[in-house]
Here is the input.
Amino acid sequence: MNIFDNISESEKHLLYKCVKAVLKHYKKGEIVFCADENIDSICYVIEGNIELTKNDYDGNEILLTRIGNGETFAETFVCAGTKSIVQAKSIDDTKILFLNFNNILNICSQNCIFHKKLLENLISIIAQKNLFLQDRLEMFSHKTLKERILYLLTKYKSADNSVFEIPYTREQMAKYLGVNRSALSRELSKLKSEKLLDFHKNSFKLFVKKTS
Here is the structure.
């Protein structure tokens, strides 16, 4: 969902002024904000891509999610008034619009319909992201790497069990699963030898194991 859904281009530009939106440019690899930073604005990606990552107890970087064009991030920390627990980094040259949360909450004196719509969209986005976090928790409830890989691939598997693609490189997939790349490569090779799956780059096929 886009935070500007059902808001026209002309209304959008009025809204930018209403909430005092700030546009910033980030080069590839540049940090947008770090863990433990205070965030007061909701971030809207106009162009480019962002990775949200977190380090585990051993210092390994875990990829939580990628944010692309038309998506927002940092809503939870902003609304809760807490410091960020993740790092946001641009993985392309990126343009981000910063929407100050207090300005969104304080409906302007003109009582703009599109201002109200922005707030409604924000609430819907937060609800959807809570569902996403539940999915991530379920993934990490699987103790073994094998279970996590199969859980992830099943989400992208097509109904006819033909070849399908996942939106991750090996490095990104390893970060998403919370392991290093070599461990992931070993486990994928093992699953392939067990004839549970086949793969080439980010294309996969899952096989149903026959029972006697």
